[in-house]
Write a structure and sequence with these properties.
The protein has a 10-stranded mixed beta sheet with strand order 8-17-16-15-14-13-12-9-10-11, with helices on both faces. Helices cover about 40% and strands about 15% of the residues. The protein is built from 19 helices and 17 strands. The protein has about 525 residues and is an alpha/beta fold. Helix 14 packs across helix 15. Strand 4, helix 5 and strand 5 form a beta-alpha-beta unit. The longest helix has 21 residues. The chain folds into 2 domains: about 200 residues, 3-Layer(aba) Sandwich (Rossmann fold), CATH 3.40.50.10260; about 300 residues, Ribokinase (UDP-N-acetylmuramoyl-L-alanine:D-glutamate ligase, 3-Layer(aba) Sandwich).
């Protein structure tokens, strides 16, 4: 459509130079090493190198193999030192560099890395290890003091489009030579391989730079997958009009809890309130309510019988009453958090779903609600369309009734093909599927797929899934459509988890994620006002 490689390279190189300048430490000498491949990725690096040199940086472009083209000459004319076939000089530049720009291999390269590019990466890796070695050892250790932080003696690394050695489609990594980037700048659209657990530690902070392609480019218009960003979520956050009352922001009903998992329903209720729901009710066994009620004064409660009192009605009777008299009065429903796998819990869920058929508000099914569905044949015909399911990989494997295959366990099969499986099952089940984990995937029956740009280990902790489910039902209660509620809650949840990971991911609890939620919402609300 009239956009040349040269034009795209010029835009990509300029964006790379801009980000490189931001990554340079403010007190650095501005020494930049650009690793240049023979293809278009190397061309982006040469354009960036020229811009940085023209801005006063000391820039070296190291060619993995000789290339004689106008980009090399332009870089040299702009003040870039061009080197090739000089491993000792490369080693020395790595030892001195403040920033390394990895522009060796782009989207077309598949690991393992071969040839000159491999030798360049291995030389850089060895020099980085050499640079990181301590020059002197302390002569004594203070046993009663906290250890001093060890600051790495290494340059920052910026990858262009893809970290060299990472597969753009699968995320497979040649771990013997790939460099761990502090940031990756990719162009126009995010490559799927960048959003995989295997590549996460090599990508660093992910930036996307537009190439100003025509908006009616058919290949772009056909894309149904997108990465969720703060601008999208900020635009979806419910407004808070001055004349509002609690009914304005909806009523959420949470059915869950058991004597073994007492806290789950409480975490979900707190999260639903913190994300803005007007009223939250928890239907739970009486012992659960007795344990939680004093700590959660804002929550209203619907006690469910647990067989401990003479003459009380059966659980089935209570479930029928709940379905017919309570559920229709709520604007959103969450089922399953902390219910356990006892037969009576499954009976409760099944009875509510069957009895309230046609009167169910927007619905979220989580945790043991999903495990209950997995025991049923063609369970998707028994729940309303656009129900939100929130499985982790194990629950997804059970719902999809996967069996060991080709040497892979069911969970490994889920993790190996997350995007395809989530999209396929969302269509088959007529549901919104929120496949949790690193780079959570949210898929619709219509084929839209949203992906979170986060792999946050702090969220690998009991209770954080209950928090996410509560956040989703809280947004549903406020009137967001199911897909928008799911993707917004997932994004806010991940950002809150990232803040909760400070100062250490090891100690973040589910309650810490809830505590950070107001900060995240406030930041997005401010960004919306600024626009």
């Amino acid at each position: 459509m009239g956009v040349s490689y040269a034009q795209m390279m010029a835009r990509a190189g300029r964006a790379t130079a801009d980000l490189a300048r931001q990554l340079l430490p403010p007190d650095s000498a501005g020494r930049v090493l650009v690793l240049v491949g023979h293809g278009n990725n190397g061309g982006d690096g040469l354009v960036a190198a020229r811009h940085l040199a023209e801005q006063g940086m000391s820039v070296t472009g190291y060619l993995a193999r000789e290339r004689a083209d106008s980009l090399v000459e332009a870089a040299r004319a702009g003040g870039v030192t061009i080197l090739s076939d000089a491993p000792e000089a490369l080693r020395q530049r790595v030892l001195e560099a403040d920033l390394i720009v990895d522009a060796l291999l782009g989207t077309g390269a598949k690991p393992p890395v071969r040839g000159g590019a491999r030798e360049v990466l291995l030389t850089v890796r060895r020099a980085l290890e050499e640079r990181a070695m301590p020059t002197d050892q302390p002569t004594s250790y203070n046993l009663s003091a906290l250890p001093e932080p060890v600051l790495p003696n290494r340059p920052r690394i910026l990858a262009v489009d893809m970290p060299s050695g990472v597969d753009a489609d699968s995320g497979a990594v040649d771990s013997e030579c790939a460099l761990r980037a502090d940031a990756t700048i990719t162009f126009e659209a995010v490559k799927v391989g960048l959003l995989t657990a295997s590549a996460a530690e090599y990508v660093g902070a992910l930036h996307v730079a537009p190439l100003d392609l025509p908006p009616d480019l058919p290949e772009v218009q056909s894309v149904r997958h997108f990465v969720i960003d703060s601008a999208r979520v900020a635009a979806l956050l419910p407004r808070r009009p001055p004349d509002a009352n609690k009914g304005t922001f909806g009523k959420a009903l949470i059915v869950g809890g058991s004597e073994r998992y007492i806290g789950a329903a409480g975490l979900a209720a707190q999260a639903a309130y913190r994300i803005g729901a007007g009223l939250v009710t928890v239907a739970a066994p009486k012992p659960v309510i007795a344990a939680l009620a004093s700590a959660l004064p804002e929550v209203t409660w619907l006690p469910l019988p647990n067989g401990g009192e003479e003459g009380e009605k059966t659980l089935t009777d209570a479930a029928i009453s709940l379905a017919l008299t309570e559920v229709p009065d709520y604007s959103a429903l969450l089922i399953g958090v902390g219910m356990g796998r006892a037969l009576n819990a499954f009976t409760l869920i099944e009875t509510v779903l069957m009895q309230a058929e046609g009167q169910l508000p927007p619905l979220v099914i989580d945790a043991d609600g999903l495990n209950m569905l997995a025991t049923m044949d063609e369970w998707w015909a028994k729940i309303p369309p656009n129900t939100i399911l929130t499985p982790h990989p194990g629950e997804m494997a059970r719902l999809a009734k996967l069996r060991p295959e080709n040497g892979l366990t069911p969970v490994q099969q889920v993790q190996a093909d997350r995007l395809r499986l989530a999209a396929e099952k969302a269509a088959q089940w007529r549901c919104i599927v929120v496949l949790k984990g690193a780079f959570t995937v949210i898929a619709t029956p219509q084929g839209e797929v949203a992906i979170l740009p986060f792999a946050e280990p702090a969220l690998a902790r009991a209770g954080t899934g209950d928090v996410l489910a509560g956040m989703i039902v809280g947004l549903l209660a406020q009137g967001l459509p199911p897909f928008e509620a799911a993707l917004s809650a997932a994004y806010l949840h991940a950002l809150s988890g990232r803040l909760a990971a400070i100062p250490t991911r090891s100690s973040a609890l589910a309650q810490d994620v809830i505590a950070q939620l107001p900060k995240v919402i406030a930041a997005l609300e401010r960004s919306r006002l600024a626009r």
